[in-house]
Each structure stands twice: as C-alpha cells, then as structure tokens.
Amino acid sequence: MKKKLVLVGNGMAGVSCIEQLLKLAPNRYDITIFGSEPHPNYNRILLSSVLAGDADMKDIVINDWSWYEENHITLHTGQTVTHIDKDRKLVRTDGGISVPYDELIIATGSLPFMLPLPGADKEGVIAFRDIKDCETMIATAKKYKKAIVIGGGLLGLEAARGLLNLNMEVSVVHIHPYLMDRQLDQPASLMLQRELEGQGMKFLLSKNTESILGRKRVTGLRFTDGSEEAADLVVMAVGIRPNAALAKTSGIECNRGIVANDFMETDVPNIYSIGECAEHRGISYGLVAPLYEQGAVLAKRLAGVDTQGYQGSVVSTKLKVSGVNVFSAGQFKDSSDTRAVRLQDELDGVYKKVVIRDGKVIGAVLFGDTADGSRLFAMIRSGEDVTGKEKEVLLGASAGGSAKSGVDLVAAMSDDEIVCGCNGVSKAGIVQAIKEKGCTSVNEIKACTKASGSCGGCKPLVADVLAYVLGADGVTSVKEGICGCTALGRDEVVEAIKRLHLTTSKEVMNVLEWNNPEGCSKCRPAVNYYLGMVWPEEHEDERESRFVNERNHANIQKDGTYSVVPRMYGGVTTPKDLMKIAEIADKYEVPLVKMTGGQRIDLLGVKKEHLPAMWADLDMPSGYAYGKSLRTVKTCVGSTFCRFGTQDAMGMGIKLEKKFERLNTPAKVKMAVSGCPRNCAEATIKDFGIIAIDGGWELHVGGNGGTKLRGTDLLCKVKTEEEVLEWSGAYLQYYRETGKYNERTAEWLERLGLDTIKAALEKPEDRIALNERIDKTLGLMKDPWKEIIEEKKLNETFVPLT
Ligand SMILES: Cc1cc2nc3c(=O)[nH]c(=O)nc-3n(C[C@H](O)[C@H](O)[C@H](O)COP(=O)(O)OP(=O)(O)OC[C@H]3O[C@@H](n4cnc5c(N)ncnc54)[C@H](O)[C@@H]3O)c2cc1C
Ligand SMILES: NC(=O)c1ccc[n+]([C@@H]2O[C@H](COP(=O)([O-])OP(=O)(O)OC[C@H]3O[C@@H](n4cnc5c(N)ncnc54)[C@H](O)[C@@H]3O)[C@@H](O)[C@H]2O)c1
Ligand code: SF4
Ligand code: FES
Prior knowledge:
Layout: E1 3-8, H1 12-24, E2 29-35, H2 47-51, H3 65-70, E3 73-77, E4 81-85, E5 90-93, E6 98-100, E7 103-106, E8 110-112, E9 125-127, H4 131-143, E10 146-150, H5 154-165, E11 169-173, H6 186-198, E12 202-204, E13 209-213, E14 220-223, E15 228-230, E16 233-236, E17 240-242, H7 245-249, E18 258-260, E19 271-273, E20 278-280, H8 288-303, E21 316-318, E22 326-330, E23 339-345, E24 350-357, E25 360-367, H9 373-382, H10 390-395, H11 406-412, E26 418-420, E27 425-426, H12 427-437, H13 442-449, H14 459-470, H15 490-499, H16 505-511, H17 523-534, H18 548-552, E28 555-556, E29 562-564, H19 575-587, E30 592-595, E31 601-606, H20 611-618, E32 630-635, H21 649-660, E33 669-674, E34 688-693, E35 696-701, E36 713-718, H22 721-738, H23 745-752, H24 754-762, H25 764-780, H26 784-790, H27 794-797
Parallel strand pairs: 1-2, 1-7, 2-3, 7-19, 9-16, 10-11, 10-16, 11-12, 18-20, 32-33, 33-34
Antiparallel strand pairs: 4-5, 5-6, 8-17, 13-14, 14-15, 21-22, 22-25, 23-24, 24-25, 26-27, 28-29, 29-31, 30-31, 34-35, 35-36
Helix pairs in contact: 1-8, 11-14, 12-14, 15-17, 20-26, 21-22, 22-25
C-alpha cells in the first residue's frame, strides 16, 4: 500500500516540491492537496504582469486541472485546512473534509500585512496577494480614477505600475524617505524614483498613514502630519507575515514562522514545512528561489534520496516594472567593516555598487544596467576572494570600455553562473538542455529546465544562451504579442492597419480583438505611432496615448518641475537668441541653465504653469528634448573655421535638423556631423552620423552612446549634400516603417542586419519612394507650442500631470 502524503497549500512552494517528488519517486505516495483558493496551482509572481496587461490569467497557470488528474493527485480547492490532529494523523477542512496522512507538508504561504488603521475595513481597501485582489483592481479601474498604494517596496511599486497601466492616477505612500529601502541604497532609490515619476507615478514620501477616510467606501487617507490625499482605491503593500496560524493552533513549534530544520522537518514527526510560512535558521523568505530550494530538499527527503539538507539562501531581487532595471542582492548596506566600489552615471541613469567585506563580495545594487547581476550574484554565493580586483568586479562586463551584451556576455559567463535566479538554473544546465534534449526555443527550455518560468526576468538571457549555442539562425523564436492585450506582434498589427485601413486606436483594438479593449500603457503609444506612420494624413495623433513628457511637450524632472530646451539648429545660436534666452531665464527665475550633451541650452526647474508663457516669450521652436523624434544634430565647426575641416559640417547639420525636426520615429534619434575624420562631433555613436572626407561624406548608422554603447556601421559614401539628405531621408523612413515602437536604431539594425538595410536603400528608385513618403509626413508636422499658443488651446490641451 502506498503511503498517504497530504499537502496543505496549493501554492508555488508546495506544488513545486510535489513536482520534484514525482520525478524522484513517482509511485511512492497517494497525494492529496488542499488549497483555500478556487484555482489550480498558479504563478503568483506573474500577477504583477497580469495587472500591468502583459500577461493573461490563463498564461499564469503552472499546473492545470489535468496535471493533477494525470498524476493521480486528489485536489481539494476552495477548502481551508482548519485543524491537524497530530495523534490520529489526519487533517480537517472548513468544508468538513477529513483526510488521514502518513506524511504532511504545510506550505500555507504568507498573509499580506494589513495596517490596523481606523477605516481599514472600508470597501476599496485591499491587499495584492492573489487572483481575487488582481481582479478587484482591474474591475475598480473601470469605475474609479484615483488609487493610493501604501508601501514603496517591490510589491507596492509593481502594483502602482499595473494600476497606471489601467489608466488610474496613482500615488505611492511610503513611510521612509527612500523607495525600496529594503533593497536599495539612497542613490539607486533616487534614480528609481525619478524614472517612475517620469512614467507618471506620484510619491508621498516620509508619510505615515493615520486613518482611512470615507463612509462605506474609501475616499482618501489622512496622515499623521495632518495632510490628506483623496483615493477611490487603497492597496496595502507593506510586507507579509508567515501564515503559521494552523500550525500554531495544532501545537507545532512556531516563532514568526513554522520552525523547520535543514530537512524542513517541524518538531512533530512526519510533519514538514516549506515556503513563506516556514522559518529556517530564523529566516522566513519572501521570494521563490529559496522556497524552491527548500522544496527540492524536502522532495529528496520524502523520496529517500540523500541530501545535505537546506543551508539557507542569499537572495537577489529584480523589480518587474517595464523600462526600469533594478537589481539588488545580499548585504548592500555599508557598515564599519565593509568597503564599497561605486559607479554613478547620472547622464545615462546608471548606478552600480558592490559591497566588499574581508576581500569578498557580500552585496550589490545595480540600477539602469543590470547585465552584471548574475555574475555578481554568483560571486556573492561562491564567496571567492576578490582582493586587488575590486574595481574589475564592479566594472565587470563593461571593463575595457565596451559593455558586453547578448551572446558575448554569455560567452564570458562561467558554466556554473546562474541564468535563472528563481529556479536556480545555471548556464551549464541550459546548455545541456539544448545539446542533449534538443531545445531550440525559450519555451522548450522552460519546459525542460523551468528556467524563465517564474518571474520571467531571465528570458532575454536564456534566449542569448540559445543563440550562443545554436547561432541566431538555429533559434526558434516564439511569436510574442506587442503586449498582454494581444497575441499579435508588431508586423501583424502594422499589416492589419494597412490592409483593413484602420485609422484609430479604438478601431485597431476592436477589430483585432484586443483582450483589453482600452489597451495598456505599452500598446497605446505603440499603436498610435504605427497609425501615424501608416496613415500620416488620416490619423489624428491621440495625445492621451502618449507618455507624460510627450503630452506636455516638456521633460518632467525629479521635483515635478520641467525643463525647457529651445531648438538650436546644428547647435548654432546667435547673440540675439542668447540674450532672449537669458532674459527669459531671468524673468521666470529659472534656477539652472545648462548646456546639454547635444549642444543645446536647457532651462531647468521651470514650473508647469510657466511653460506656455515661457514658450510664447521665447518664440523659438521646441527642441523636442523629450520626444520619440529627432532630438539634436550635433556639429563641429567644420570647414567654416577649423583648419582641418574639409566640408561645412554646421551647414549640413542645420539642413538635416531643419528637414527632420518633429518627425515621429519609433524611438529617439540623434545625429551628428563632423567636418573631417577627426570626428569631433562624435558621429560614430549616433543613430545617424555624417563624417566629411575629401570630396564627400561618409554616412554612419546604428550608433548609440547610452547604456548599451555601440559604434556605428558604415552605410555608404556619397559626394554631395543632396545625396546626404536623400540617403538620410530614405534611411529614417525605412526605420520608421520597419522599426518596433521603442526600438532604437542600434537594436533595429542588429535585428534586421546591415545587409538587409543596405539592400533596401541601394536602388535610387527605392530611396526616392521612401523620401516621398517621409516628405509627406514632414509636411504635416507642426510646432506643438506654436500651435497651442496660436490656437489659444492652452487650457484644453495642456494636460496637467498625473
Ligand atoms: C504580486 C506578487 C509578485 C511577486 N513577485 C515576485 C517575484 O518577482 N520574484 C519572487 O521571487 N517572488 C515574488 N513574489 C513572492 C512569491 O510569489 C512568493 O514568495 C511565493 O508565491 C510563495 O510561495 P508559497 O507556496 O510559500 O506561498 P503561496 O504561493 O502564497 O501559496 C500558499 C497557498 O496556500 C493556501 N493556503 C493557506 N492556508 C491554507 C490552509 N489552511 N488550507 C489550504 N490552503 C491554504 C493559500 O491560499 C495559497 O494559495 C511575488 C508575490 C506577489 C503577491
Ligand atoms: N519583484 C519581486 O521580487 C517581488 C515583487 C512583488 C512582491 N515580492 C515579494 O512579496 C512580498 C511582499 O512585498 P512587499 O513589497 O509588500 O514587502 P516589503 O517588506 O519588501 O516592502 C514593504 C515596504 O512597505 C514599507 N512600509 C512599511 N510600513 C509602511 C507604512 N505604514 N506606510 C508606508 N510604507 C510602509 C516598508 O518600508 C517597505 O519598504 C515580499 O516578500 C517581496 O519580496 C517580490
Ligand atoms: S572634426 Fe575635423 S573639422 Fe570638425 S572640428 Fe574636429 S578637426 Fe575640425
Ligand atoms: S529569474 Fe525569474 S524566472 Fe528566471
């Protein structure tokens, strides 16, 4: 007769343990699982993605109903185990079911901590823990406008991002002065705050909530400093508590969590505990990686396979908010016995910190560029001595000046480096699955190894390992929709817009059966761009689909003020314009005037209400320093003044900027013109760089000077200025027509390949046709501020910040 194994808690840790056990000893137990929730086992982590519109509820099921059947597991959903009878060895549920056990696993997870505030029981006050909470938020967003998230940790920020995507106005209330204080130090936290403010999130920092206002339903919060903030929805994300009540009332030893030894055994024979409810060596974890390790140990124990036992885990975290790269691992705070190596680049928004004690890396924080995360995490785990190499450790992939990415990064990784942190899968594990099991796609790797199956953050790295082993052509790419609202990719959406003559986002989303009819913050700006690109005359730009900076035609700064950058073609100005700018800076008491990297003047710290009047006084075109558009054409003085110059770089730059200003492009575009190969305008790190040579010009493409440094490739050499304009027009239009929204030219070029692009532009008739299309679009572009001021549409069109 088989032994009876009962699992209480149908969640991530418990079921993962059962999966392992079935592999090790498929016929050893009769298994029964109880779960309070009415669902089969699902990926709780991806609730953030569901809320953000990047995944569907059906995508997050890990094991569907049939899995239980196929493995002969008796599943009782919607049943909460309320009592464990240790003497008679049976469990009882609130629904009256009673089941005997030989072995019992308690994996009841955590409960969200609800602040015991007056009014916390009002309608509209919820946590973010399960499918029900997620559905409540989605439904609330259809009816109400304003949400407050209490808690600026991982969960709070992911909830806030999701609610923004659902078109709610979102404020995050945080008790400390810095966000994610449990994972980040102050500089990284400030950079994160700035980035999220740019995405439209509002923060109320150092705020302690005193009570929740409203009669039946919440209407707002009152803080201990006396201030109040309105809200139709309050989401509490202030941490979790191990759900140990069942164990406690059943006489099993508990502290904060259920006390378990290295073999996940409680103090009662045949009763084990794993997951967030368990406490191992004084620690209850709140991330899946350690919980899966605990499950693997217990599976071995129950299968009778030798194990060293669970030794505890060092954890690493990544925030799952699109467009934000944050990584934190180990002990990242400074103390008297630690030293830290730091790198901070405010221009590119990159911050890296590595904390060292006794010659060993013990913690790291990365913001902006997290490519080194897995390498640093491997060092923290291995405890290798890095004495004398501390700076190399910090610079890592970017040592030597050129940041490694993609396949190069994989090549530099050691075999035991972890690729998937959630599931503990190393590079060697993935390489083995490719070579021995014939995996050719990320999905197949997921099925074989579990890598990428939890938070999904490692998907790009798994894809890079595939490309490293199989070469780019050997990898089967799986079709991915442009966001969770649709399964259609970029090309299919653009093709449908053309074929079905769709001219508004509403039409696109209705006709193509978006599963979220309103779209989300990922697809709305993308669809708006594609429509404008395909139908420049018919499509009316949908301002509400644009990001906040583009809606307000200015760059929001970290303190809520704006920056104003007037257009200065080719970086050339006049004394008259300079005097005007100086007078206006003085008149509006602009706190800071600064030159930008693109040779423009930036007036920083401008109050929102001063923007229209300032632009009216300036009477200069907008510099588009905020837009997915041509930003600047940087020039050197060229032959006009420089003794080395062979061509008129400034003149060429001015012509280009006048031609392409205001053009909508998939992502920002930067240009530069140098008057000779000395290349003082740094044209070889621009999207389109022009370098004068004897008797003509070289046209360089696909450069990027940001976090992912990329030098340009030579497109061609031409003789005349007219040819420069013709090739650049054709190139930009080809990028506009084939680029994915948000894809810089450097990524686009790598995706398409230089040869494809050259072939598309090679024939004069193709270049002429592309130029005709770009000219049509350019002819329709208007200066936004001029339009606002002239048409006196100020109050209607100037959307206040959300
Ligand atoms: C929105 C969100 C995003 C997250 N993102 C990440 C991330 O990116 N990375 C990461 O590592 N972690 C993340 N986490 C944390 C991760 O989801 C948890 O660490 C993990 O789910 C814990 O697994 P568990 O099995 O211990 O608990 P759970 O998954 O909570 O499972 C416990 C289950 O037991 C059930 N249960 C409780 N008591 C009883 C009872 N008496 N009888 C029957 N059933 C019972 C519960 O209803 C629940 O379904 C996230 C969590 C949330 C909420
Ligand atoms: N990407 C990820 O890895 C991820 C995402 C979501 C959730 N999770 C996990 O889920 C669990 C819950 O996440 P969490 O963010 O709630 O927990 P947390 O403990 O990490 O963060 C809670 C935050 O709330 C703040 N806080 C506490 N009291 C407050 C108050 N009265 N007012 C305002 N702020 C207050 C704390 O300072 C803290 O920063 C954690 O274990 C977390 O690791 C992980
Ligand atoms: S790139 Fe050549 S022309 Fe231009 S400033 Fe430098 S040396 Fe002079
Ligand atoms: S790192 Fe989370 S799924 Fe791989």
